[in-house]
Amino acid sequence: MRSSSSWRRWRLSVGSVFGIALLVSCSAAGKDGDAETSGKDRPSASRSSSHVQDPYPGDEKGARALMEELGESGGTGLVRSLRPAAADYHALFQPDFARQAEAFYEGSLWGNSPQPPRPWAKYGQTEMRMWKATTDDIRAWTPVVRANFPGGYAQVKDRFKAGLAVYTWDYTKPGDERGMAYNGLVYVNGHWAFFPKPWYVLRG
To answer: What are the start and end residues of every segment in region (Disordered) (predicted)?
Structure first.
């Protein structure tokens, strides 16, 4: 599935978003040490994100609107609302991998100090493309998934549970085929959560 939309040009240049350069760095190639925090020690993501995410329902329209807002502003509150709760990892992944993923993301992504709001798109990247696949399709590694998702998903395809949808997207300049690429946005347990490059969990 592919869609595009255009909005006004960005006033700020893109930078690291909560220290996620390692996980969601720009993908010019396109498709191809903090302490761990227990889910019991932090607020439920679904509770803390409820009001921030009100304008973004859990469907393709909501996903597109959320991605556009991230591309344009990358507001701190909105980004932090994407932090998964412990239950979200277990809803998306098989049990053993869910525990690994929570430890990895909490230590390398969400445990970092918040950065100033920055757009996730670079200046001039006014077009957005979005792709969606169910976790069942990822597990089956269908042609559509192979075409539109990073190859690293093949390494963890069997770690997903069935029944959810995963989104990948990019921001490009008009006429460009490649730009800033992101993946791992999922609507789970009543809110949007971000699980970028899950195959990195295997290296964690």
So the answer is: 29-60
